[in-house]
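Lay summary. Proteins are chains of building blocks that fold into shapes, and those shapes determine what they do. In this project we predict the shape from the chain. Here is one chain we studied, written as its sequence of building blocks.
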Amino acid sequence: MVDTYILNPNLTKTDAVAEWLQQRINWQIYLPNQRVPSVRKLAKLLDISCFTVVQAYEQLVATNVLTAKPSSGYYVNVMTSLNHQNNEKITDKSPVIDTRWLVQHMFSDIPSERSPGAGVLPSDWVRNDKMEWAIRQVTQQADDFIYDYGDIQGYKPLRQQFVQHLNVLGMHTHLDNVITTSGVSQAVTMVAQLLTQAGDTVLVDGPGWYWLTSCLQQQGLKVVAVERDHQGPNIEQMKKIFAAYRPKLYLTNSVLHNPTSYYLHPARAYQVLNLIHEHGAYIFEDDLYAALVPEEQALRYATLDQFERVFYATSFSKSMASGWRVGMLVCPDKYIDDVLSIKTLSNMNTPEFGERVIHRLWTQGEYRRQLKKVQQQLYSAHQKMREALPKIGLVYPEHTQSGIFVWVDTGQDTRQLALDAYKEGWLVAPGQLFYPDARTSTHLRLNVSTTSNEFLTWLGEYLDNNIN
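And here is the predicted shape, written in a compact code that computers can read:
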């Protein structure tokens, strides 16, 4: 693995050095009883003072991560390392490629330019110059709301703004049918809890969002995938799945589908809705990438169904700030009270502070201009990918839209490719993660905003050297 010598800018230098070394102990780069770099060596590698390194080492000694040996140096504490292995059961010597593995490393300190498998845009793409202003504005009013629980449905002006936005997109609903959530992930778990019980079958796309599948399986649900192409789900296969398994819920992206960046064809959408109504099932429509869609309207199930059998969810994490975890859920009329009850009993409320900040940003013209810039950057990144892939013997998928991802067929098992890439310091997302049965796949999900020319060069050489 290619190591990186970049400290977390959000921590003090001492804490950042301690975190940097703790991560490498967790990853077993430094093993039990092994001497860690000397104070002078680490200070030189990280371009910081020896005093800062000494402070960090002493902090790790105090927490039993390291042991100090006079006239010798600092060593990894045996018991601390063993406890980590027992608790985490993770090792980078022979990692298991699964959802947990990818998520764990997506939130590590691997830089974005070495993470073509990342699921988000680089922070400099979404950074908003008005963010600090919005936070200050909300902070000045904190005394008015911070000591109260607030509205269980969420900050009312934000929900009003959202309803107006949906109307523009052709989806008509009411303020009372909208609930704020801690991102799409909370919306998924609430709707699944509402409509299903352990042992029930739910339907997802194949390929589809890997976190979603793992979340549903963890709730004791049987997850079955329907093949998804550039028009939508395979309708004949879907009919067979409904006949055999009677799924109660179909969870999908209609717009800028993850991982393919495909849209939904109108004819296919009508066929799916007919099946849903025929079998008394529901759709959970994840519109996480809504803000990345240019002004021309893209078709959603909720546009056709008008929330009769569609739960619609979106979030601001991809376009404003991942850390705010503010999402919106629209429910069919008869389920709004049940969903509110689940929200009340799970976490009482979603933080109003973040919702107010999002509202401030959303109602500023600067945010709209920022989105246009991001959309243009994505379009340019796709154009570059369209030109670059053929140069290394790969095909840019014909029907790909300008979302974050491109779903590339490498012609080789990408599980092994992901392991080999990681040894070279790259984080990639192999195709097997995007199917409930973790089937062997030759596809990679590439993030166009973080896939560098350097990685594509590495990928081309790797594929050439591993031709069967």
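What the prediction tells us: The first helix runs from residue 13 to 26.
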